[in-house]
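For the sake of transparency, this paper describes our internal protein records without simplification. The remainder of this section carries one protein's record, kept here as part of the documentation:
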Amino acid sequence: MKKKIILLIAIIGFAYAFSDPVKQDTFKVAIVGKQLSEMKLVFTIHSFNGNEIYKQEVSANELLKSYLASAELKDEEDKINFLKEEISYFFDEKHFLEPAVTENENPDKNVPDVAFYNELKKSGLNGFEYRFSKDKSYYIAWSETAQKVKVYYRCC
C-alpha cells in the first residue's frame, strides 16, 4: 500500500458557539498539499462533542482563478502567500453572525430554503459567512430540525 504524504501549509482554528447556543464548536481552515497544483483549502467544523458537522474544500487553483484578474499573483510563492492571507481573513470577526438571522430580517432571492431561514429566526442560533471565490459567499448555520449545517443565504 502506497503512503500518501500531505503537506500542511497553514491551519487556523477558532472556537465558536454554533450548533449549540452555549457550547463551542471548532472551526478550522487549512491549506494542504505538496505543491500548488494539488493544494486545496479545507474548511471543517467539529461540534462541541467532536463530530464533524461540516466540510467544504476547494482546490487552490480554483480559488486563485477567481482572483487572478484583479491580483498580482505571478509566481508560486505569491500565490501561496495569497492563500495564506485568505485563510487568515477567513475567521475575521465580521464573518461570525450573532444571531444568523434577526427577527426583523426577511428572506429574499438569495435564500435557498425559506423554511430553514424561518427556523433560524426562531432558534436564534449563530451563523457563519465564508467565501471560496471572489464573487460568492455562503452563509451557514446549524439546523436543529435537520440536525446538520445548511446554507441559509448565498450571495455575490
About this structure: The longest strand covers residues 8-17. The chain has a mean pLDDT of 90. The CA atoms of residues 37 and 61 lie 7 Å apart.
